[in-house]
Structures are given as C-alpha cells and as structure tokens.
Amino acid sequence: MGDDESNFPDMSELTPEERARMLNWTERSTVESAPPVPTQIGRYAIVARLDKGGQAETFRAIHPGLQTTVVLKLAHQKADPSLIDRIATEGRLLASLPAHRHLVKVHDVDLHEERVFLVLEDVPGSTLHHYAKDRTPDAKWAAQTVAAIARAIDLAHEQGITHLDLNPRNVLIDREGQPRVIDFGVAWSRPWWVDGDAESSIGGTPSYLSPEQASGQSDRIGRAADVFGLGGILYFLLTGKPLYQGESRLAVLHQAREVAFDRALLERPGIPPRLRDICMKALAKAPGERYATAADLALALERFIAPRRRLHPALLASLFLLSFGLAWGIQTFRHRATQTADLRAQRALDIRIWRPEAPFQPLLQSLPVKAGDEIQIRCRLKSAQEMSIYLVNPLGRMQLLKRFPATAEDREVTYPDLEKSQELKGPAGTELILVLGGPELPEPEEVQRLWDAEGANRPMPSLPATTVARLTANGVAFEGERTRDLGEIRDRSDPQERMRRRLDEFRNRLGQKCAVIEGVAFAHE
Questions:
Q1: In the chain, what are the domains?
Q2: What is the 3-state secondary structure (H, E, C) of 458-492?
Q3: Fewer CB atoms near the end CB (10 Å): N or C, the chain?
C-alpha cells in the first residue's frame, strides 16, 4: 500500500482553512452516499427516517387527516400485484379495529411503488423486550402485563383480526408503564417484508412461533397461534429468555416445530406453580389443548393475580338461603336465563358479517343483516370428530356447504376461508346455518330427509330482523332485541315460536346421530 498512501493528504500539513474544506467535503460525501429520505410516501409527508432494518424502513410522518405524527413502516420487497385487493381489504380491517388502551392503532395499510406500508399510531416508549431486561423478574407484574395484552388481543379476535407475531418486541411499554401491542398486519404480509426462501417467508418471529406456524400448516393457523404467542411473552417475562434460541434460523424453526423450549427454567424459585401451569397450557403443542380464547387466558391470569377469597361458613350459609329464596321467586326467569348462558358457553359456531365499513363483526352487532352483506362461518372442531356445515335458505331448501374430516387434535375451521367471506344472495327471509359434528356423521341425504320430514321446501318462519335463534343439542334460545324470557305463555302463531318448534323437532329427529348440533337462524332483508 506504500504508493497508495501518497494519495491521502496528511491532515497535519494542511492549513486550518484547507483542513476545514477537507472535513466539510468528507461530511458532505458521507451524507450524499446515504439513501435520501423521501418527502412523501403515499399521502403521508415524511418528517424523518427512524430506522432501516432488514425487513423495512421506518419513518416518522404526518397524517394528512389527523394532522399528527404517525409511524410509517415501508417494506423492502414489492408486493405481488395479484394480491393488491387483499392488501386493501386488510387495510380496512385493521383500520376498523376499535381503540383500546393496550393497542397501538393501525391507521392504514397501503402500497407505495408496489411496496406495502403500514401507518401506526406514534407512541413514545420502549419495547417490552428492552423494558423487561432492566427489571427483576416479577411473577405478579408478568401476569398483569400478559393479562392486559390478552384482553386487547381478544378484542382484535372478536373483530376477525389475528396478530400472528406476538413477542416482546411487538409490545411497547408507554410512558405510563402500560403495554401496547404493535405491528398487526406484519405477519400475514411477511413475504413482502423479507428476502429469502420459503423458510424465511414464514410469518412471525421464529423465537416465538407456534408449532403450526413453524410447520407452515396454514389451515391450522388462527387465534390459537396468538394464545401461544401470549404464552411465549409470559415465558420471557418469567425467565428472561426467549422460547427458542439457536445458531441459525433453521435450527430455531426446528425447535419451534417440536415446541422444544427449556421447561426447567419455569421451575425456578419465585415462579408460582399455578402461574407456571397457566404458561404451560398456553404453550401446549396442540392448538386444542391451549386456552380456547385469549379472554380465557386473561381470566386465568386475573384469577391468579386476585384469587377469590373463601367466605366464612355462616356468611356462606346466609347467602345460600337468600339465593335459594330469590331463585324460588323467579324460577322461570332464572331457568331461561341459565339455559341461555349454558347455550352460549357451549357454542361451537360463530357467525361474522363482513361489510366494507365494519369487517367481520359478530352477527348480533350486525343486525339487521341485508342482502349483499358477506358472511363468514367459524367452528370449533373437537379431535376425532367430523364436521359438516349446512345452509337452509328462506325457502326451506337445505344444502351442504362443506364437510371437514376428523383430525387428531382440536382445531378451528372457517368457511369459506380465514381471509374470505361469502355474499348473502337470494330471497329475503330467514337463513339457518347448521353445524353437525361427531365421530360418524349421517350422510347429507339423511340430514335432508330428517329436515324435510314434515314436508319438503317448507318456507322458514320469518324472524324479526333484530332477533337470532340459536339451536344446540340442549334446546333453542333467542337473542337480540325481541326475546321472550319473562314467562311460559306463548303465542303459537308467533314466528319466533314457530321457529322454536321447527328447530326443536329437527333436533329430536336427529337424536343421538350427532355429538354436536348447533345452528344459528337470522333474518336478512
């Protein structure tokens, strides 16, 4: 390098003016070599670049409508043009998510020069990953934090939104010390955020992936994967370690497929056995062995934080006598209310309505339903059980929508698909969505015969537009604005009572042929 060194001037030999000019040139060259900060991305004016990582560039921007700062994450990779409609749908869905104390609001999902970008609420704070590193592990605080996150995730699930990348780096701790979930929408669009092969395009962070995600089993990935992610966050807060660690991404993915995390760390002193059991249940390998919902996990953690106190025997006896007297006085109302609660607890069927302004809302919140609305059907399927979904239209005609084979594990299934819905068409009137499940199901022809036992193509009774009838193996209950829970006097010509009789008769004819009998009847205009 001897000759080359002569090309670089000795700074000590330069005059102050020459040295200043040289330093100014060097600084200017460095700035000019860095990628320029765009002035505009989509409709958002860019203020500054915050970070440039392996997946995306992050900017602070100005929201044109709110006139406030937001965080904008721009993917490096271009999106598949065939999926642009899906991106628009996801954007509306994420933006419709209600405000929640423990969620960072997603304002928008859009495209810029064929690259996906997310627009998020600008929340000052640090990630839970960094925040927890500066704290001594605290079981009660860990339970409180994950319970709060789980409540927020349950709200998202109720709106038809899954996160699929829950980990300590996707939770912020704000200036008030409260957790805020970020980065909804990153996992499903991961192929546009990263380079690489099929392994690198698996949605989610490898160190916290559920086994079904790590295995690429897309038909099994749903809300249970988020419950697993919540368990992974709880594990991190209790142990200070991620679920999986390895020398390569492939090694970590292998651990995730086998759920091969260090369980011994949960045996450490200071981790209560009850909290350890909650964590282990959330991290079960089979989705059906985890908590059924994020709300169930939150409830278990809340009960750990504030366990119920045992009552003094004398007080307990007094309360029993009082409750017995009240029950005797309002026996009919109590029976009907309890029956309705039991039916809700046993639900295997969940109906969602999709509208552009309010995607995937629960059926009851979407009444009245109108032609042109789109429907999505979600079912919980027990292990070793088949499941069939039927539709009965207002003219009384039954058709099989889909049949799901039995599997070795509990799972959730969605019709027509997790990200899809089907438009309601045909004549106005009452629709019935029927789900039958069991180890061996009657053939569709047999189900049709039982439905038509009193005459083929009998029109469905016209339910009020704001009433829903629910059928289970235990009976029929009504929900909505018009219910009849105050007594047993019934108008036999009332459409609601005719619907009750018809569903009850069908349930009796099915008898013991199905382990699961559940239906939802509703009117559409």
A1: 2-33 (no CATH), 40-121 (3.30.200.20), 125-305 (1.10.510.10), 340-524 (no CATH)
A2: CCCCCCCCCEEEEEECCEEEEEECCCCCCCCCCCC
A3: N
